Amino acid sequence: MSNTTLENLSVTISDVEKHFGAGKNRVDVLADVNLEIKPAEFIALLGPSGCGKSTLLRLVAGLDSPSSGVISIGTKPVTGIDSRCGVVFQEPRLLPWLNLKQNVALGADLNADIVDIDALLERVGLKGFENNLPREVSGGMAQRASLARGLAVNPEVLLLDEPFAALDALTRLKMQDLLLEITRDSKTTVIFVTHDIDEALHLADRIVVLGQRGNGVDQVFRVDVPKPRDRSDPTLVPIRNELYSKFNIHH
Questions:
Q1: Closest Cα to residue 190, out of 206, 177, 174, 210?
Q2: Cβ partners under 8 Å of residue 210, min gap 6
Q3: Is residue 31 part of a domain?
Q4: Alpha carbon of 184 to those of 56, 64, 136, 161: distances in Å?
Q5: Which residue of 18, 41, 60, 202 has the fewest CB atoms within a 10 Å radius of its CB?
Q6: What residues does 43 pair with on adjacent strands?
Q7: Is residue 74 a part of any domain in this protein?
Q8: Does residue 3 fall inside a structural domain?
Q9: pLDDT one-digit tens code per residue, 65-91
Q10: Number of domains composing the chain
Q11: Per residue in 115-147, is it b (16+ CB within 10 Å) or e — as a string?
């Protein structure tokens, strides 16, 4: 996969707020969010349910607009659905009447560059299943197709909203490693929403913790451990313990 030059791959979130409704019915979801994401950086978003992680992802993708503030990719503000982004959701969201190759090609149709769909399917481990319908493959395979579809736009920014949450534990670990491998090679900037502390520790260069609903960034943890990481690496323990303590999780 090809990307534009790395200078165009940063994401800047400046003074972003998001609320829904008005007056007594107004619900503040995000406030005063400021974040600078470097080119090819892998960011994990953690936080309590309802704190605005998915909302922030939608704002970066241009699927929704901030109530105030500006989000830019490179020097260009996000002003609507942004073709520079690839999005992967928690559910595969594949069209049931199309086979896997046709589903992945939907992403490529949005891209001016020529994408080798067969090579992309092989990269995510779906060679030989191109003609299968979504109902004919496992949940993990369907999610691989969803990941391939997100990559088919040659995204400058890949946005993933808990994409592995519904997978069994072993498939989830394999998908994490696959995602790391692909994004490392493509130099794509990644924002990854998760509730899983260990997943964030394995994948991210920085873990951004959002506060309770209506707030912004609570704390940022830098994970200075080379990739690929050993999940049992003792140097991850202090960060893990601090995150568990922050979320009042006993382990």
A1: 206
A2: 30, 45, 46, 47, 48, 51, 52, 53, 56, 216, 217, 218
A3: no
A4: 23, 28, 30, 19
A5: 41
A6: 191, 206
A7: no
A8: no
A9: 999 999 999 989 999 988 889 999 888
A10: 1
A11: bebeebbebbebeebbebbbeebeebbbbbbbb
